Structures are given as structure tokens and as C-alpha cells.
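Field log, afternoon session.

UNIT: design team B
ACTIVITY: writing a sequence onto a fixed backbone
BACKBONE:
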């Protein structure tokens, strides 16, 4: 029998379980949908370089810091920061409160995109969605997102499913699926990559993705790359604090986090390699934005035997990956509500899902009914996306680095990252401290200020 590795306080029973659940949170629409479209919009390889720097010099240290905090306090994000804060007067818990807000806003647009994925799963079963004609695939996508009824319907289906997963079979189910899903997703991406790489536009696609044009490095691109790194690793808002609280005491945090970051990067690159050759073969625009995934994929699958079947599997796997990420987002809110107000997990979950349906609807309708309702020149969907990735997550990460690097004692950090001296991680700890005290916060600060045109 498999060991129970539930998300109830007590946590993941095995090291592998913790790794897998954490990967399940990291890997999601961020890899398949967001990474390619942001890379396309912001200049390809130059953006990739900014993204790599952000991931390893900022993202990874913040991820390690968050997991460490959660595991040390074994509590939801707000309680964790309260408990570990050196003085009750220092309001570090505000990072947690902002994190709860981020979880909400991310879910609002994430569930909508997940809804599109679900809709494509369904459509690939009921009709032929393959075409190499950009106009056809674009129209198909627009017909979906500009239909208020369908947008809401699919989003709510996603929400109910996430709610059911959290309340029922829960973590064990998630871990079991994620464990099988990630290798499958990898494999399928590889197959699609092979097909994409044998298209006439392959060289151009790869050049775009891997040969940097340094003039494309701008303040905006840096901010977006940083935001993507936070979004990808599920950091800056408490998801990793919450998941860290379920990690076992003897788990090697830095090395597990590194493995998560590398696997996550691999999935993103595979997705990019699947998409850009298609873009350059059939005349799609790399800058097509949020719709890029949905309009290009039907073209590469149109060139494959059993294309309709494979695109069905592809979107199905993507929807599973999205669910793992959404569960971790909602878990931030549920862990807080249930621990703070002593609510049963079930009530906390449905309370959160209900509220999310309300906020999420405003994102779902932002391509139809609310299309003309804009704030700061952005639809609500874009606004939630922008504010979370480019403001709230980097700020959250910034304060986490200040908390761990400057407010906590280095001895505490060392004790946590060496599992009280059991691991020979001394060099890692030294490197971590340099990153978390100086490098990461400074980089975030520079990028944020630069994007405000301070320099
Ligand atoms: N990392 C997830 C993805 O890339 C999104 C996410 C962000 C999940 C923040 C949890 C917290 O799809």
C-alpha cells in the first residue's frame, strides 16, 4: 500500500512525495502557456537569458527560503511569519496577507486559462480542431473566449473540480497523478518537439529561442522575466511556505528545490521548442500573446499522424498539470482559513472556491461582456496577471529575502538547511546566505525601480 501523504498538517510522508507535490505546484500553465507567449512577446533568447538569471539568482534562493520557513514553523503562511518573526511588533505576516491576495488574483485568471484548456480537451473529442491556417485556429480560439457563457462555464467547471480534489481524495490523488503525469508530459512534449523540429521553420524557431539579440534586453523585459520566474516556481506568495510546512524534517531542501527548478525549466524549454518552429513555419506571430499556445498547437498536430488524438492527450495532460498548480494556490487560502478560524477543511475549501468564482468571473468575462471595462488601460484579466506577476510576487519575494537574510539569524538558516547538522551543506548555506542577503534583493529592487524609470 502506498503511504498516506496527505496535505493535512503532518504532511508528505516521503521525500519523493514532497518533491512531487512541489513539482506539481511549479509545473503548470506557466510552462506550457505563459513561458512561450512571454518569450515570444519579449524578444526570444534575450528574454530567456533574463529569465534564467531571474530563476537561479532570485527564484531558487526565494524558493529555498520559503520552504525552509514553512517547514520550520509548520503552519500556514501568515502564522509561519508570525511565529518565526523575532519580535511580535514586526509585521512580517503582512507578506502572508499579500500572498493570500496574490493567490486569489492568480486563481482568477489561471482558472480561466485552465478553462480554455478544458474546452480544448472537450473540443478535440467532439470536432476537428486541427489546422495549419493561422486565421482558422485564431478564429476558433476567439469564438471561445468571446463567448461569456462558455468562458464562465469552463471556469466554474475547473473551480468545482479543484474544490472536489482538495476536499476528497486529495493529496494522495494529486501525488499519484503528478507522479505519472510529469514523465508523460515530458514524453509527449518530446514527441511534439521532434515533429516541430522537422518543420521547415525549425531553424528560425530555434534561432529565435536560443540566439539572443541583446538589443531586446529592456527594463520591461527584465521585469516580466523576473515575474515569470516567481510565477513559475510558485513563489512570492506563500505557496511554497504552505507546501514547505508539509515537508519532512530530514529532507534536503536546497537540493530538492534545485531539482524542482531544473525540471521545471526543462518542461518550459520543451514547450518553447514545440511552439516556435510552428510559429515560423506557418506565419503565426511570435507576439500573439496569451492566445499563442491555443492557436499554434492545432497547427503542429495537424502535421502529425493521429493528430486529433494526440492534441487531446496533450491538452488533457496540460489540464492535469494546471490542476496541481491550482491546488497549491487554493491550499494557501484553505490552510489559512482552516487554521486561523478553526474551520473544517471542507468548509474552508468551498468558501474559498465560492469567493474565487466571484472574482474569477470578472476575469472570465474580460474578453466578452467586460471587454471594455479597463483599469490602467488593462482588462481585468490582464490587470490581475500584471499586478500579481510583476508587482505582488516580486515584492513578496523581496520581503522574504529580507526576512530570511536579515531578520533571522544565520545560525537558524544554517540549522534548517543542514537539517541540524545532519547534512554536509555548509558551502550551499554560505552561497545561499550571500544570494538571499545581497544578490536576490538587490536584483529585485533594481528591476522594480528600473521598470518605474527611476534610473
Ligand atoms: N507555478 C504555476 C505554473 O507555472 C503557477 C503558480 C503560481 C502556482 C503561484 C502556485 C503559485 O503554472
Amino acid at each position: 500500500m502506498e503511504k498516506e501523504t496527505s496535505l493535512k498538517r503532518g504532511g508528505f510522508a516521503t521525500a519523493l512525495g514532497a518533491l512531487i507535490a512541489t513539482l506539481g505546484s511549479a509545473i503548470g500553465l506557466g510552462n506550457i502557456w505563459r513561458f512561450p507567449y512571454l518569450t515570444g512577446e519579449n524578444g526570444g533568447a534575450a528574454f530567456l537569458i533574463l529569465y534564467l538569471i531571474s530563476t537561479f539568482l532570485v527564484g531558487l534562493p526565494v524558493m529555498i527560503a520559503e520552504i525552509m520557513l514553512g517547514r520550520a514553523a509548520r503552519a500556514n503562511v501568515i502564522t509561519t511569519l508570525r511565529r518565526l518573526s523575532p519580535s511580535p511588533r514586526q509585521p512580517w505576516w503582512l507578506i502572508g496577507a499579500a500572498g493570500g491576495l496574490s493567490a486569489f488574483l492568480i486563481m482568477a485568471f489561471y482558472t480561466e486559462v485552465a478553462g480554455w484548456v478544458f474546452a480544448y480537451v472537450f473540443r478535440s473529442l467532439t470536432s476537428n480542431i486541427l489546422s495549419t491556417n493561422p486565421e482558422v485556429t485564431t478564429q476558433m480560439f476567439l469564438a471561445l473566449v468571446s463567448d461569456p457563457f462558455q468562458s464562465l462555464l469552463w471556469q466554474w467547471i475547473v473551480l468545482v473540480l479543484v474544490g472536489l480534489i482538495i476536499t476528497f481524495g486529495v493529496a494522495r490523488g494529486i501525488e499519484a497523478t503528478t507522479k505519472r503525469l510529469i514523465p508523460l508530459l515530458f514524453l509527449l512534449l518530446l514527441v511534439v518537439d521532434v515533429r516541430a523540429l522537422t518543420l521547415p521553420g525549425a531553424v528560425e524557431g530555434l534561432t529565435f529561442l536560443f540566439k539572443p539579440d541583446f538589443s531586446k534586453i529592456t527594463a520591461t523585459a527584465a521585469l516580466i522575466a523576473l515575474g515569470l520566474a516567481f510565477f513559475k516556481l510558485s513563489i512570492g506568495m506563500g505557496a511554497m511556505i504552505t507546501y514547505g510546512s508539509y515537508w519532512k524534517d530530514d529532507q534536503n531542501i536546497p537540493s530538492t528545490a534545485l531539482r524542482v527548478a531544473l525540471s521545471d525549466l526543462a518542461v518550459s524549454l520543451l514547450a518553447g521548442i514545440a511552439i516556435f518552429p510552428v510559429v515560423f513555419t506557418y506565419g503565426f506571430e511570435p507576439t500573439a500573446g496569451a492566445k499563442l499556445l491555443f492557436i499554434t498547437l492545432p497547427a503542429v498536430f495537424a502535421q502529425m499522424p493521429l493528430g486529433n488524438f494526440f492534441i487531446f492527450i496533450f491538452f488533457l495532460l496540460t489540464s492535469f498539470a494546471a490542476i496541481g498548480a491550482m491546488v497549491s494556490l487554493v491550499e494557501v487560502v484553505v490552510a489559512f482559513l482552516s487554521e486561523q478560524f478553526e474551520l473544517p477543511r471542507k468548509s474552508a475549501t468551498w468558501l474559498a472556491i465560492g469567493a474565487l468564482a466571484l472574482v474569477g468571473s470578472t476575469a472570465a468575462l474580460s474578453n466578452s461582456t467586460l471587454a471594455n471595462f479597463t483599469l490602467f488601460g488593462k482588462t481585468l484579466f490582464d490587470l490581475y496577471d500584471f499586478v500579481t506577476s510583476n508587482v505582488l510576487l516580486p515584492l513578496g519575494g523581496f520581503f522574504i529575502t529580507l526576512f530570511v537574510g536579515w531578520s533571522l539569524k544565520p545560525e537558524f538558516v544554517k540549522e534548517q538547511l543542514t537539517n541540524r547538522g545532519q547534512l554536509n551543506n555548509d558551502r550551499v548555506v554560505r552561497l545561499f546566505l550571500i544570494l538571499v542577503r545581497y544578490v536576490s534583493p538587490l536584483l529585485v529592487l533594481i528591476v522594480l525601480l528600473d521598470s518605474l524609470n527611476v534610473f
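LOG NOTE: The chain is about 75% helix and 0% strand.
NEXT ACTIVITY: expression trials, pending approval
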